[in-house]
Amino acid sequence: MNEKNNDNNDKDKNLEKKEEKINNIFDKKEKNEKNEKDITNEKKEEDKNENIKLNNNIIPLDEEKEINEEKEKIDSNKKKKNRRVPIKDWACRSLKEYQIINEIGEGAYGIVYKAKYIGEKEYKNLYGIPDVVALKQIKTEKEKEGFPITALREIIILKELEHKNIVKLLEVVISEPKKDKRIEEGKINRDVYLVFEFMKHDLFGIISNNIVYNLSQIKYIFHELVLGLKYLHDNNILHRDLKPSNILLNDKNEIKIGDFGLARIFSKSSNAIKRYTNRVVTTCYRAPELILGETNYTTEVDIWSLGCILLELLTRKNAFYFKDDNEEGEGTFGLICKLCGNPNEENWKGVTQYKNYKFIPKENYQCKINNKTFPNLDEVTLDIIKKMLTLNPKKRITLDEILKHPFLTSHEPKMCKAEDMPKIEESFNSLNHGGCENEKKKEKIEMKIAGNDYLGKKKKK
Ligand code: ADP
Ligand code: MG
Fold first, then answer.
1. What's this model's pTM, rounded to 2 decimal places?
2. 202-442 sits in which CATH class?
3. Candidates 2.40.30.20, 3.30.200.20, 1.10.150.390, 3.40.250.10; correct CATH number of 87-198?
4. CB-ligand 1 contact for 108 (6 Å cutoff)
5. At what angle do helices 300-315 and 379-388 cross, to 10 degrees?
6. Which of 19, 320, 348, 396 could form a disulfide with 343 if both were Cys (CB 3.0 to 4.6 A apart)?
7. How far, in Å, is the centroid of ligand 2 from the Cα of 259?
8. Strands (E), 79-191
9. What is the pLDDT of residues 439-454, one digit of tens each?
């Protein structure tokens, strides 16, 4: 900003100097003309011609042109500065630009609303704000540390992203100051709202409302998610919370990854020392390396979650859903081992060194991702699931390999087009259904049983 100002100041000064130069010349010219009054008409004409010649020698025409151009540039810059539409990069407008229609979901930091744009048309057109949006409220009143770090991450990361399979953050707005005691208590007294393009459904609502997709429709959803995730990973971003309630669908059957509250930028350099928290991803979509305590993880954690989502779409069941009151007390890792087999030094070198390895079931489970467990799934489908749900992250399939896997390239039925996706009834609003409630309950349970507990509940004596 300052550099730009200095630049403009220098330009202003240069222009002033040049203007002074021109004015002097014109002053001289005027004086000459005054003297000319005494001279005869004929002589006057001659002198005038002479003067023009002289003037042309002193201020070359192109310099005058340059001055005028520069003047125009500075004037237009000034005009831009004074225009009513704020410059997006610096703007944080008011919540008053939107009118809330209804609640559509509940986030960890506040409610998500459907809202109508009622602000300036010029701004709307300039920045492509649609008529209807989703407002994600970030309540700050309960925050001891001021503004929640997850919301900050979400804003910073989403501001840089632009992809058809990533939900679009349109702007951030703030509420009017609250007339409560927050400011006296040293807290922020405004709520912040993230403005997103509106998405009609989330995948959690769709699955829990028994909307059934056929294999080619599942392939379409899966392929869109792979493209979105590939864009994130190519841009050094880990999502770390992939699950059906964070996958959004709109009327045009576009599929978009949302909720970047747990996302983070990662380093691709193998030398970088990485110490990331392993308290990420909702329990039943959490990769085994995270459960075992790995802090130096990377893109493979998102591929595991995507594998869980694909299996859930195919079977209508969450494979690793760990009920809090599970009598057998096997926990999520117990369920993972039962389906994918036990990790050991043979299939995962170094696994026994993890601090949580001692919680792994003693039984010698073998991988059961086969047509006995899933009689409705064919070999190719089972193969991609098996490769995504591979315990050892180093052996897990990559996104590039997924894109080349027969499941997406040659296997029948081929993936459908967006227009072949089922139309979800107008009256059905997946975002409002009990699904979100259950999800929230599950998350509360997860918070309670933080740490090792989700490796297995202690058996009742
Ligand atoms: P949290 O981090 O608290 O989980 P999310 O961003 O996942 O917050 O939002 C919570 C819920 O709100 C989502 O599961 C979804 O149902 C709904 N939601 C989020 N973003 C949108 C959107 N752009 N359009 C419509 N609904 C949305
Ligand atoms: Mg969410």
1. 0.76
2. mainly alpha
3. 3.30.200.20
4. yes
5. 140
6. 348
7. 5
8. 93-94, 98-107, 110-117, 132-138, 169-174
9. 544 454 333 333 333 3
